[in-house]
Amino acid sequence: MHSDGRERTDAFRQLVRLLAIHETAEEEIIHPVARRLPGGDGIVDDRLAEEREAKELLSELDGMDTDDPRFLKSIDRLRMDVLSHARAEERYEFDRLKDQFSPTQLKGFAAAVRAAQATAPTHPHPGVESATKNMLAGPVAAVADRVRDMIRNARDKG
């Protein structure tokens, strides 16, 4: 694998890690709070559907070689999906949370999100989108993911 391919692989692995951690924290902390708002179930269900699609695409991409022409096409689709999802989160979920909760409560949610991120899986796990499933499967998946990451890193550096 030449330098560009290695850089693309490293960048993709970092993206997978960041997205998996971000979505797990949202699923464990933000979505349950948002469900308590009027109309919150529909808002969260829509976000979960978007997240499920992104996790499935990430999982598919994670198994591809980053030099594969299909990878570039799929990563562009993922980029568009993630941007659309982020806009929907801001508009429909986060703005409503900001309107309904005090700055102190929001700071508490932010601290809880940071704690959830510290122990979240580092790879997507489609089908584990609920807070309960994340709490049950998340720690085991996180350990398995982190071991897999260490093995990959050691192999790639060796």
UniProtKB/TrEMBL annotation:
Domain (Hemerythrin-like): residue spans on this chain: 6-95
Descriptive protein name: Hemerythrin domain-containing protein
Biological source species: Actinomadura physcomitrii
Organism classification: Bacteria, Bacillati, Actinomycetota, Actinomycetes, Streptosporangiales
Domain of life: Bacteria
InterPro entries, A to Z: Hemerythrin-like
